[in-house]
Amino acid sequence: MQLHQLRYFTAVADTRHFTRAAELLHIAQPSLSQQIRTLERELGAELFHRARGHITLTDAGEALLPLARQILADTETAHREVQEVAQLRRGRVRLGAPPSLCASLVPDVLRAFHHRYPGIELLVDEGGSKDLVRTLAAGGLDLALIITPLAGGAPALATTELLGEDLVVVSAPNAPAPVRRTRIRVTDLEGRPIVMFRRGYDLREFTIAACQAAGFEPAFTVQGGEMDAVLGFVRAGLGLAVVPGMVAARSGLRVTPFAADQGMRRTIAIAHRKDVAPTRAARELRRVLLHHLGAGED
Fold first, then answer.
1. What is the CATH number of domain 3-86?
2. Model's pTM, two decimal places?
């Protein structure tokens, strides 16, 4: 049983006339009659009583008609649903990103994407890069913004570097500057009160590693906060914090950059699974992200 046969059948049932049905369907009347006979043979029953100038449904035809209408309606719905997804009118994208990027880069990108594709649902998962990589590899995300390189690498993922971002020191605007120079060194943080992020933050691990490489352990006054909390603690004068430059620029805090030779810089990459092609909506979000950063075409 073919869809076009059901379409022909319902047309004859509606018009009660083979010639008029053929005209509506824009096919030859003999072809229409042949397809109806083929359908009847496949079903093992006549669907129409055929009398000169008078066509009526048999009991079998009466039973088939509502089913045929439902099948055709479901087919049309399926076609429309798929087309809406294919044309980015519906669907969803699951994006993972570290909290620092959710507070800086991600909102602008999502605003641009939503303006262009308002029917696509956007789901955002905040977390550290290691957690995001695990979720992405398990199929829980379509794309993830991660900080590279990752310890141990991410062999199951395809990554594209997006940009390098300087880390800076922020301090309360009404407190003395952390150093008299225009730029700070990691060693200047020794013995200074530092506000630290919760465990799992990429920035926490990066900052601790930098201090240890400089020969000291950082002294925490407060630790365990998210980005907004850390900035609030710094604003309250509880200590210094090392944060991304994009976040610091919006914080209203005093910003002191690191000296260029300190290596206080991180690389942001976009990642997806190698073994699963991203959905069209995910590919489009990636393209909007690249365009936003000036790394891709519009």
1. 1.10.10.10
2. 0.66
